[in-house]
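Project outcomes to date are best conveyed with an example. Our students and postdoctoral researchers have been running inverse folding experiments weekly, and each run begins with a structure described purely in tokens. The record below, which covers 105 residues, was selected by the lab manager from last quarter's runs and is presented without edits.
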């Protein structure tokens, strides 16, 4: 996701789950859903740990089949919270499945 697209999230409300904060807005460019995964140094101090969390989130999004084109494409930013590094892909899938934003897709 480019910086210009990411700036659209400044005034957007989001949804909290136990281990993630999810923000979303309509994708004005059309096409398919676009995702950004954000893991701060506060969440996980090493780059290897942050990248592992991002890979697990992407794998869970693929498992939920959210990369397909839809009639109302969204820009979705997923922020990892502390404790998310201990989750498996299946646990992330279960947590994201019950997020309200993914019910509309």
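After processing, the design step wrote out the following sequence:
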């Amino acid at each position: 996701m480019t910086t210009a697209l990411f700036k659209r999230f400044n005034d957007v409300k989001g949804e909290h789950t136990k281990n993630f904060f999810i923000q979303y807005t309509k994708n004005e460019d059309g096409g398919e859903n676009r995702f950004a995964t954000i893991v701060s140094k506060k969440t996980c101090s090493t780059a290897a740990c942050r990248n592992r969390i991002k890979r697990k989130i992407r794998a869970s999004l693929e498992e939920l089949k959210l990369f397909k084109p839809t009639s109302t494409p969204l820009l979705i930013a997923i922020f990892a919270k502390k404790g998310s590094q201990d989750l498996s892909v299946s646990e992330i899938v279960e947590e994201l499945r019950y997020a309200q934003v993914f019910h509309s897709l």
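The radius of gyration is 13 Å. Residues 3-103 form a domain with the Ribosomal Protein S5; domain 2 fold (CATH 3.30.230.10). The training component of this project remains on track.
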